[in-house]
Amino acid sequence: MDTYQTMDVAVVGGGPAGLSAAVTLARSLRSVAVVDAGEPRNAPAEGAHNVLGQDGIAPRDLLAAGRREAQEYGALFHDDRAVTARRHDGGFELVLAGGTVVHARRLLLATGLVDELPDVPGVRELWGSSVLHCAYCHGWEVRGRRIGVLGTSPMSVHQAMMFRQLSEHVTLFVHTMPDPDDDAWERLAGLGVEVVDGLVRMLRTDRGVLRTVVLADGHEFPVDAVTVTPRFVARSDLFEQLGGTLTAYPMGAFVATGPMGRTDLPGVWAAGNTSDLAAMVAAAEGAGVAAATAVNADLVAEDADTAMRARAERYAVA
């Protein structure tokens, strides 16, 4: 089993939050190890949007550029999965799937989240292309098109109204969503959103292209895109191994943090979708920077305390 010397910080997750944190820490001359399993949430998307100066950049290209920057400042990368975490010698010990052991004084979790999608054939297959969830991430690309909203939660009404801003052709398929209140019905009617009752059986495609929403009774409705509201659940194995508990939310579960990403677990920070289920790429980047500055400040204080004690001991001996 290969063991690496203790680093100042171990960052778990090589997405926008983790890479931004790694760059910030490495620029502060901190030794940083980034553990990256290589499973970015937005991998199926053609482009990342609302990223100032790089709008539409392919997600993989954005991450590759961020990794190069972090490496140029001295961050070390492990293309592997962290499978266990425990406290060790005043810090943390991470064991990776390949057998490598990483020791670190502080731990920053940027492991992202899992989108739990509706169990409707076609949804997962088209996820990130013509099956969408965020009007800000992909709305421009489907503006003016025929958009179906797959109703699965109370948020589906909100989603229908958001996409109605982008197209006059929005249809809400009630599917399994709870019955909206009178105010919601009035708003949908006022905006001209068509509402279709009945369960959705599948999304029909032709040569990989979305064509129709098919109801259980066989009726089909032509669409160019479908929006869904997944359940968002933070990847939390390591956090829970260290004694943490996810915070429940109507649409999922996340790692709760205080200002600048500090969790309730001493020495552990979280950033990006791990702690903010709604964070888009730019917001995740900012959260990574903020958490990194807080981690560095915490280490600065610890280093100063250690130096102060060592100085006092020297004077005591003298």
Radius of gyration: 23 Å
In N-to-C order, the SSE pattern is EHEHEEEEEHEHEHEHEEEEEEHEEEH
Please state the second-level CATH architecture of the largest domain.
3-Layer(bba) Sandwich
Q: In percent terms, what proportion of residues is strand?
A: 25-35%
- Quickly give the structural class: alpha/beta
- Spatial separation of the terminal alpha carbons: 44 Å
Overview of this structure, please?
With 318 residues, the protein is an alpha/beta fold. It has helices at 16-27, 59-72, 123-126, 135-138, 155-164, 182-191, 237-241, 281-317, and strands at residues 7-12, 32-35, 76-78, 82-88, 91-96, 101-109, 113-116, 131-132, 147-150, 170-173, 194-196, 200-206, 209-215, 220-222, 225-227, 231-234, 247-249, 252-254, 268-270. The chain folds into two domains: 7-115 and 231-317, FAD/NAD(P)-binding domain; 118-227, FAD/NAD(P)-binding domain. The longest helix is centred in the last third of the chain and has 37 residues, at 281-317. It starts with 6 loop residues before the first strand and ends with a helix.
Summary?
The protein has 318 residues and is α/β, with parallel strands linked by helices. It is 30% helix and 27% strand.
Q: Descriptors for this entry?
A:
8 helices, alpha/beta, single chain, five-stranded parallel beta sheet, FAD/NAD(P)-binding domain, seven-stranded mixed beta sheet, 318 residues, 19 strands
